[in-house]
Amino acid sequence: MDLQEIIDESKLLGEWAHIATVSPSGIPYVTPVHPCWEGQTLWSMVGTDSVKAKNIGSSPLVSCHWQVSPETNFDSLIIWGRAALHADIETKQRLWEGVFDYDLNEFAPGGPTESVGTGFMAIIPTKALVLRAFGMGGRFEWKAT
After folding, report:
1. 108-126, pLDDT tens digit by residue?
2. Please, are residues 119 and 85 in contact by the beta-carbon 8 Å criterion?
3. What is the pTM of this model?
4. Residue 134 burial (CB < 10 Å; 0-12/13-18/19+)?
5. Cβ-Cβ contacts under 8 Å for 127 (sequence gap 6 or more)
6. Which of 16, 58, 103, 131 could be cross-linked to 24 through a Cys-Cys bond (beta carbons 3.0 to 4.6 Å apart)?
7. In this structure, which topology does domain 3-143 adopt according to CATH?
8. How far apart, in whole angstroms, are the C-alpha atoms of residue 74 and residue 27?
9. What is the 3-state secondary structure (H, E, C) of 42-70?
């Protein structure tokens, strides 16, 4: 598999994924996110004071898992990568329109310039695993070179 196939697979599996981060004390933290792709970067809107934002500040290694469901034949996708928080106005303006498939104003009504406390987590994928039917239908891997 190549990264474009991974991106396509994520879009087939739905809008929601769960992201795992690790706290400075080593405690795992998992939360749902609605990620969207811009090129080969996976983005998610986050609160700059959220646990996940604080966690990636101390440990940028993350994992995203797209939920398994009967609607997708119990296929799933896991992406591992390095995350970084971006709360600068330039990045927020670029991402605000055209990258996400939902209206960001519903969650941050101030828009990109007045949404203090809102940022974006960028994940650069390093590895991915597609499991067909819980893995019983095959395992397909991708790794960054």
Report:
1. 999 999 999 999 999 999 9
2. yes
3. 0.94
4. exposed
5. 79, 80, 81, 141, 142, 143, 144
6. 58
7. Pnp Oxidase; Chain A (2.30.110)
8. 28
9. EEEEEECCCHHHHHHHHCCEEEEEECCCH
